[in-house]
Predict the structure.
Amino acid sequence: MQTPWGPAQHRTPLGDGMIEVSTATHGGIYVPPNLNREIRGIWRREDCWYEQDCDWAIVALTYPDRFPQPRLDVADELARRWYPEQYNIVMGGAEGGEPQTPAIDLDALWAAVDPGVAEELPADKLEAMMARARTLLGVAEQSAHAEERETAARAAAEVMARYGITAAMLAADGKVSDKVGTWDVTTFAPYTLDKAILLTSVVDAYGGKTIRLAKGGQNTDLRVFAMSSDLARVQVLFPSLLAQMETELRWALVGKPSHVRSDVFSRNFIAGFTAAVVARLKAAEQRARQQAQAERDAQSPGGTSVALVLVGRKSEVERAFKEAFPSTATSRRTRRTGAGVGAGVRAGERADIGQAKVGA
């Protein structure tokens, strides 16, 4: 049997043509068209395939008589976690569904991260922006409401990007000091190397460099090189991302296919989470740069471009890195595939990366 993930290696009939399959890399449930039509459109998969990380819960909740109670309990928790809006609509029985009332006003979250702060001193402006980012990251980590967490996450990423570009341009104009700094950090077991890759990827998105200080042992020691304002962003964001990732991973493991080892699933999850987070960081950085350039063109046409300032900053970091470690080889990263990657990507797409509407 051919599946979206390759030839099926194991098949478990669930009745009436519904089959649960696993392949060498992934798996899921096939729902024949006549049964698939009974799944509510708001979370129906038109290709009739429901992957094994999270989508299978949709099938289980639609056809509960085909699954044992322990799996139904897991499916209910997964659906609440991964598809909160759809869950409220489908399980509430209403076409529009009434979502839970958020703990705070979502519009206030956006307003709170408007970078057009009133502080006159450049350093105070930067500190105000970072304080807002920390507040948003806290909401994303701790809120019990999915919509609130996701809104805070988007807002925080944009604020972090705006903070970075604002600091860079203020430094270029001589209004603040921003020099290369270092940060020694340890990622702890389990999955210490996978967490180290997350750190390295975040640092790279912010124009920095990372080196592993020693090999061997259960933990990984690293040194980060970055401009001081970018280093501040990493120091705030990385611990938050770790906390969010570990929370999401615990939930994802609840629905892990029984034939997939937990360590393999977890590493795949972290790889997917990292890829999604980095893509969002880079997109937020690009938007902030474009807006900063537009503002600069309006205020002082013909001045130093944002791109040139950023190239200069990256060169400073490279120079400091090479002075400290003159003979360092670049390591090659392994691309992971298989069960857990998809769940990690979805978690990374929701993670709070410090993002908001960037105001004037």
